[in-house]
Design a protein that fits this description.
Blueprint lengths: L1 H14 L21 E3 L10 E7 L15 E6 L5 E3 L1 E3 L10 E3 L15 H14 L7 E5 L5 H8 L3 E6 L2 H11 L3 E3 L11 E7 L8 H11 E12 L4 H6 L13 E2 L2 H10 L2 E8 L6 E8 L1
Parallel strand pairs: 7-8, 7-10, 8-9, 10-11
Antiparallel strand pairs: 1-5, 2-3, 3-4, 4-12, 6-9, 11-14, 13-14
């Protein structure tokens, strides 16, 4: 009874807002307060009808915070078979309403720094070397920059990178560290006057409200001989098969969609891509990594 469980959880917290607070809890000062939520009445992947599938208690994950609901209801689409969240905070769907190119602060060229992990940098190097087997071009676009590790490796390996980041603070921090401009805005509003040999979408597509439009935008930005590298959690992946519902990805409050490989491949093919490689991620437990080219 996932939907009933979801509603009972919120009802209990409405009556006792501090029920999940206290010493020893992951968020000891938490008090429940409702926030406006967008209700996904249809699957954001294909528009099909969904049914309640699983209720997770997002409160238990480390990055949980307001305005997310402490409980998360996953719906399963009867059309494409992918999963999607039933409710998501409206506040987080209206970021970067005024897109702009964030320029690096030259005065911080030496002061701006961030520690990094050698293994992560090495993994990105391996991924870029694999992509060289599909395209010899050096124009690269990263959608969603994280901490800037991929961009740093791309610069080291001779690529000419551009980047899109929806969170302004993240865009400015990475721009200052690497001393390159970052486009701050929604990827769907990014319309450069160039094509890219490599497009990187690492753990991005699960966050967007319209995955099909995002993939079609990536297709339009990709050179005919280019390659798209994409990663996203897989609810039928080996990690989740082993852990079942103890996989923390079920708790992730920031994810809108949750794919399996068959569902993602069908969407990619619908958008004009062919899947060339599939790999279990060494970057993040439970994720799948794909290399796609234009069909």
């Amino acid at each position: 009874m996932p939907q009933e469980s979801f509603e009972w959880t919120l009802r209990a917290l409405e009556e006792q807002p501090g029920f999940l607070s206290g010493e020893g809890k992951p968020h000891p000062d938490y008090r429940y307060r409702p926030a406006p939520q967008r209700v996904f009445e249809r699957c954001p992947v294909c528009g099909g009808a969904g049914r309640p599938y699983y209720r997770a208690l997002a409160y238990w994950i480390n990055d949980f915070e307001y305005p997310h609901l402490p409980a998360k209801l996953w719906m399963k689409c009867g059309g494409c078979g992918n999963l999607y969240t039933w409710k998501y905070p409206e506040e987080l769907l209206t970021q970067a309403e005024h897109p702009a190119l964030v320029q690096p602060d030259k005065s911080r060229a030496l002061a701006a720094a961030r520690s990094s992990n050698a293994s992560i940098l090495s993994i990105w190097s391996t991924i870029l070397n694999r992509l060289r087997g599909y395209t010899s071009g050096r124009d690269l676009l990263e959608v969603g920059i994280g901490e800037g590790c991929l961009l740093a490796v791309a610069l080291e390996m001779g690529y000419k990178p551009d980047a899109v980041e929806i969170v302004q603070q993240s865009a400015q921090e990475v721009a200052d560290i690497l001393q390159i401009p970052i486009w701050n805005g929604d990827f769907l509003d990014y319309h450069p006057d160039k094509k890219y040999s490599v497009v990187i979408m690492g753990d991005v597509i699960e966050h967007v409200t319209d995955p099909e439009r995002a993939l079609r935008s990536a297709h339009s930005l990709l050179a005919d001989d280019g390659a798209l590298w994409l990663s996203t959690p897989n609810f039928e992946g080996s990690f989740t098969r082993m852990l079942k519902f103890r996989d923390p990805m079920w708790l992730e409050p920031y994810h809108i969609s949750y794919f399996n490989f068959d569902g993602l491949r069908a969407l990619a093919e619908q958008c004009g891509f062919a899947v060339r490689e599939y790999q279990v991620s060494s970057r993040y437990n439970g994720s799948m990594e794909l290399i796609l080219t234009k069909a």
